[in-house]
Fold these 2 entries.
Entry 1:
Amino acid sequence: MMEITSPGKIILFGEHAVVYGKPAIAAPVNSLTTNVKLKETDDEISKIIVPDKSLTPEERNRLEELVELMKKELDIKDNFHITIDSSIPISSGMGSSASLCVSIAKSLFLHKNNSVDVDELSKLALIGEKIFHGNPSGIDTNVVSYNQTLFFQKKKKNEFIKIKKPLNILIADSGIKGSTKRAVSLVKKKYEENKIIYSKIFDDMEKISIVSKKAIEEGDIEKLGRMMTLNHALLKMIGISNEKLDYIFSSAIDYGAYGAKISGAGMGGNIIALVKEKDIENITEALRENGAVHVYHTVIK
Ligand code: PMV
């Protein structure tokens, strides 16, 4: 039997702009994980087992499709019982589908070759993620595959970011399920209608990602916070925020976060806040009181 665990992720800067070829920054979250157990079977077909959750027929079909697609890519004829156990909230911008795709892909690679090339892993995971998100940029599957903080740009080599000072991040889940596919297509529609203005916003997001990479490398936490808040304003402009997300965002700022923003596709999902270590408890409390259904603390280092 093979057992693989992969992390969740947050996007620190540049979501949506990354779909249009701009750079973005993402970090793994190792306190939220997807665990996959792969057991070979003589059965005629592979079977998905998700303890403690009854899958809808649609969910089951998608997962079976995912496994068959990956098996085909790797030319694997064997069948498996695949048990999935995840602590990552679904449709919340924390990488649940990427983490699942990477875990399944990694276990299949190991079954076949006893080894994994991380580049190949992230490519196969991305093929799988298309089942969930249409045409993802690849940032999620890359950050989860490498399990390192990344400066990611489509068609370019990943740059791994050296973090000078640990970043205390609170992830406030709004409890509103956000569909990445829907958010990406909404932004695309608006971009098509107004290319000049949207291109300008994506250019500004690019600048924020570049400045923020440097701030992370130099340990300039205050600047990083300012960049997050600026990035949030731009995400709001492209129409993927809503009243609840803005409310949670404002409470983080009011209670003294260095900065905050939507992380991921938006229209739901989560707000991340960069905070001082001494403020973790206070701000967590404030985020909960102002609508977050869960608040996770993670340290990016
Ligand atoms: O999967 P999410 O919700 O974290 O969003 C991914 C980031 C987007 O830029 C919105 C989409 C993409 O494919 O990069």
Entry 2:
Amino acid sequence: MVSEHAAQVLVASNRGPVSYSLRDDGSLDSKRGGGGLVSGLSAVEDKLWVCAALSDGDREAVRRGRSEPGVRMLDIDAEVHADAYNGIANSVLWFVHHMLYQTPVEPVFDAEFRRRWASYEAYNRAFAEALAEEAGEGAAVLVQDYHLSLVPGMLRELRPDLRIGHFTHTPWAPVDYFRLLPDDIGEQLLRGILGADRAAFLTRRWADAFIGCCTEILGGTGRTRIGAHGLGADAEFLRRRSHEADVDAWMETLREQIGEGRRTIVRVDRTELSKNIVRGLHAFRALLEEHPEWRERVVHVAFAYPSRQDLAVYRDYTAEVERVAHTINAEYGTDGWTPVLLRLDDDFARSLAAYRLADVALVNPIRDGMNLVAKEVPVVSDDGCALVLSREAGAYEELGEDAVVVNPYDVSATAAALHEALTMDDDERAARTKRLAAASTSLPPQQWFLDQLDALRTE
Ligand code: F6P
């Protein structure tokens, strides 16, 4: 049944714009999230955001009927959600699209995988049913990411009148790698997305990889249109936010911790396996080894915020980041100089302060849908910042020309790129930063979202 207050624009994503936690006294605290989709959607009125309850606080909020206007949180059974989110989306689909498997021993597709896959289907079905219920006649529904690959196909069957879009925020795997998946599962994923009128990606490269999979495996993309929309940084927000008092205070603190007159190589990531933080540390170590003139004169500021800590492989990776950072500090550090300033707690104001003072930004992912850090640093940089950028990041398509580009697996070449970036002439660095900032902000989040909505409605 279609609800009375049927929405005309709907967005569906696993993580919603708000989260709840239970206070000690039993009351609920709500927190609003950030990110490209949240800012992108702020341009649209009269929309409904359908998302999953992710925590006990969220589930309690749903049970108490504590909903924010414009948000519908789905209370999907916690075990079904964990199997779908951790067991399939983050452990299988994320690994396939970022090409993270150690193939001699993984992946293994067995009965346990099939059990989890059934949960992934159930979780996608819960979204499709909620969207079918909430959408007004002919409404536009924008389904987000690898968590919800099956939703477009399921929703199309329930509501053929809708305009359905799907957007992938990750890279897309090349066909030979995608074929690691069991044949029927690969086909189901592709057909799920092809249930949309339009499937969109962050870059042409990922869109082409998707088309390649569809062509090889299914013989084509059918009637689904394919697009690319390169999400940009939100210049207005970043410039304002990065000059607030808490960021200024962090600049002072960081300057003290770095030490007078030293250069800084900054990286800021969620600690995901695809971010390549460990090789980044090895490259910094190689820099100190091959260019001893940098000892005492440079600090690697590495902020590695927690992500997906329910998964053992993520916890192990975080531990490895810490271990390597400590080894470098033990080996090279002196009384007045700590070579690696590693922080594992999430602090947005501190990240902005690091962006402002960075001489070099290191963005070296193995593979990344876009990477907004590469786009944010040039926008807020105080005095210009050289960007060392992986050619496997989506951002490379727009920023490659003015960055120092690296193969993310090549530690020696990354060390050489850090040296090149550190020694870049001031004028050259300032000119490149200016061009990088312009390219980074050419498609702000609101326009990025409106373009997709437009294309879905009119093409
Ligand atoms: O960065 C890619 C991405 O898929 C984002 O689109 C999405 O917000 C995020 O990863 C998912 O992360 P999480 O598992 O923390 O919700």
